[in-house]
């Protein structure tokens, strides 16, 4: 199977809304080509205009939601929307942090939940369960709670990435912008500017150290956030040659010059003592609080979920703002303003669930205007539903900066999927924790990552996908 992956293309829309188009989700477009389908065991109900999937009266919807940076309150809100319209029915929202470990036995046992937010570091590989999932075309063809056909309310390109062999099985709900996050007020106070290259990053590290602060910091479960930043930086420097080599698990892909240049830039920062020590032994949100609350270090790479994740551990006056990842040189293949952005939080409805119609009804509620606005307002992140973010970003400087980042990137927006597709993150965490704490050099980092990649490439039991 050959997939032609294109960069995101710019689409203008009303002031205050995010710009997006062909969205490439984690574990989405690049799943292996396995056919098949399943049959619903859902009890039937009466199909009406307000009950388009025939959800049974007084039924319960079993919704398992990944509890990460977005929390689960938004899902509870959507469940209450269902409860209100489908009177007598209830949505049971269960939070989980390890989706694969928790739910794989339920798939094997034939009793999966009705709807799942298949997200997080330990999600279920979509290519391993795709044959057991419902086609969600009926969801986007249905009227939303406001009476408009759902597909007409979504940003362009959000359906294709979750479609495999003509079957739409994964609804990616959240538009995620990856950036280098900082406090604009702290930078203004110290007269600092966000570095655009790794050489400039090293200079800023010295300035921060003179003020008793570190440049970067990390927590053990999030060490690969630095890999995400490194890959984005290398893709910006080297273009599609780098992206496609990594996506296709090429021999020597981690040794490409742009990748090595980024690794060497990071190593200089580590060797200079500009990385806060102890990250490999620190829980990741505790480490993030050292940045957002204590300001012990000044820059942090993450997705747009970071504001909501740390909202109770952020210093007053910490003006959270995002900036693009650095390039290696000013002559990079993609401009500095190029951006890593993707649709995430992949929702699926198993065909063997007890209440398939209820699972779809939950997604219809999630895609309602009220639920999408609630998500944006409470998590400071955008859904795939248009027209839900005001110009002031609900008072969030981070959300406003995400709009600006996408506007400045224009058509130069990109993503990749190989880490989630092949389940590499767990092994990569070990390599990155060692590197960030100064326990290895660039050669060892490169060798470790290549070994993880080669193991998958050489395993004939793993179905490969060619990205072009």
Q: What are the salient characteristics of this protein?
A:
36% helix; disordered N terminus; 13% strand; two-stranded parallel ribbon; 468 residues; 2 domains; 9-stranded mixed β-sheet; D-Maltodextrin-Binding Protein, domain 2
Short description:
This protein has 468 residues and is of the alpha/beta class. The protein has helices at 73-85, 99-108, 126-129, 137-141, 184-190, 198-210, 225-238, 240-247, 257-271, 284-292, 306-309, 356-366, 369-379, 397-409, 418-421, 425-436, 442-457; strands at 2-3, 60-66, 90-96, 115-118, 163-164, 167-168, 171-183, 300-303, 320-323, 339-348, 382-383, 413-414, 466-467.
Can you tell me about this structure?
The chain is built from 17 helices and 13 strands. The protein starts with a strand and ends with a strand. The protein has helices spanning 73-85, 99-108, 126-129, 137-141, 184-190, 198-210, 225-238, 240-247, 257-271, 284-292, 306-309, 356-366, 369-379, 397-409, 418-421, 425-436, 442-457; strands at residues 2-3, 60-66, 90-96, 115-118, 163-164, 167-168, 171-183, 300-303, 320-323, 339-348, 382-383, 413-414, 466-467. The protein has two domains: 2-176 and 342-396 and 410-414, D-Maltodextrin-Binding Protein, domain 2, CATH 3.40.190.10; 178-340 and 417-467, D-Maltodextrin-Binding Protein, domain 2 (3-Layer(aba) Sandwich), CATH 3.40.190.10. α1 (73-85) crosses α12 and α6 (198-210) runs parallel beside α9 (257-271). The strands form three sheets. Strands 2, 3, 4, 7, 8, 9, 10, 11 and 12 form a nine-stranded mixed beta sheet that branches. A two-stranded parallel ribbon has the order 1-13. By secondary structure, it is of the alpha/beta class. The chain is globular. The model is unreliable at 1-42 (pLDDT under 50).
């Amino acid at each position: 199977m050959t997939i032609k992956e294109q960069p995101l293309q710019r689409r203008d829309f009303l002031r205050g809304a995010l710009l997006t188009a062909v969205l490439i989700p984690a574990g989405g477009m690049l799943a292996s080509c396995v056919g098949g389908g399943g049959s619903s065991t859902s009890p039937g109900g009466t199909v009406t205009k307000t009950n388009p999937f025939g959800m049974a009266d007084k039924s319960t919807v079993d919704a398992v939601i990944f509890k990460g940076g977005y929390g689960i309150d938004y899902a509870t809100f959507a469940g209450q929307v269902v409860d209100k319209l489908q009177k007598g029915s209830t949505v049971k929202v269960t939070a989980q942090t390890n989706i694969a470990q928790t739910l794989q036995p339920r798939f094997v046992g034939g009793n999966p939940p009705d709807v799942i937010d298949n997200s997080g570091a330990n999600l279920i590989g979509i290519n391993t369960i795709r044959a057991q999932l419902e086609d969600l075309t009926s969801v986007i063809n249905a009227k939303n709670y406001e009476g408009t056909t759902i597909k007409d309310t979504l940003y362009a390109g959000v359906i294709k990435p979750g479609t495999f062999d003509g079957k739409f099985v994964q609804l990616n709900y959240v538009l995620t912008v990856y950036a280098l996050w900082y406090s604009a007020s702290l930078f203004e106070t110290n007269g600092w500017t966000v570095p655009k290259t790794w050489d400039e990053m090293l200079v800023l590290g010295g300035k921060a150290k003179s003020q008793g602060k570190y440049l970067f910091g990390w927590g053990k479960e999030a060490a690969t956030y630095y890999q995400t930043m490194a890959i984005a930086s290398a893709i910006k420097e080297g273009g599609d040659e780098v992206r496609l080599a990594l996506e296709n698990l090429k021999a020597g892909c981690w040794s490409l010059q742009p990748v090595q240049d980024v690794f060497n830039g990071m190593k200089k920062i580590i060797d200079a003592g500009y990385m806060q020590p102890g990250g490999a032994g620190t829980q990741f949100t505790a480490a993030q609080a050292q940045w957002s609350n204590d300001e012990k270090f000044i820059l942090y790479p993450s997705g747009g979920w970071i504001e909501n994740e740390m909202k109770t551990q952020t210093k007053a006056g910490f003006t959270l703002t995002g900036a693009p990842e650095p390039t290696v040189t000013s002559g990079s293949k993609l401009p500095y303003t190029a951006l890593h952005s993707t649709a995430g939080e992949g929702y699926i409805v198993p065909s063997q669930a007890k209440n398939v119609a209820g699972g779809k009804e939950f997604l219809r509620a999630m895609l309602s205007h009220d639920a999408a606005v609630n998500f944006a307002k409470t998590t400071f992140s955008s859904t795939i539903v248009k027209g839900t973010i005001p110009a002031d970003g609900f008072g969030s400087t981070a959300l406003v900066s995400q709009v600006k980042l996408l506007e400045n990137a224009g058509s130069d927006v990109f993503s990749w999927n190989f880490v989630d597709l092949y389940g590499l993150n767990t092994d990569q965490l070990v390599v990155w924790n060692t590197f960030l704490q100064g326990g290895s050099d660039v050669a060892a980092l490169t060798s470790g990552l290549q070994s993880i990649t080669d193991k998958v490439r050489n395993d004939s039991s793993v179905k490969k996908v060619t990205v072009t």
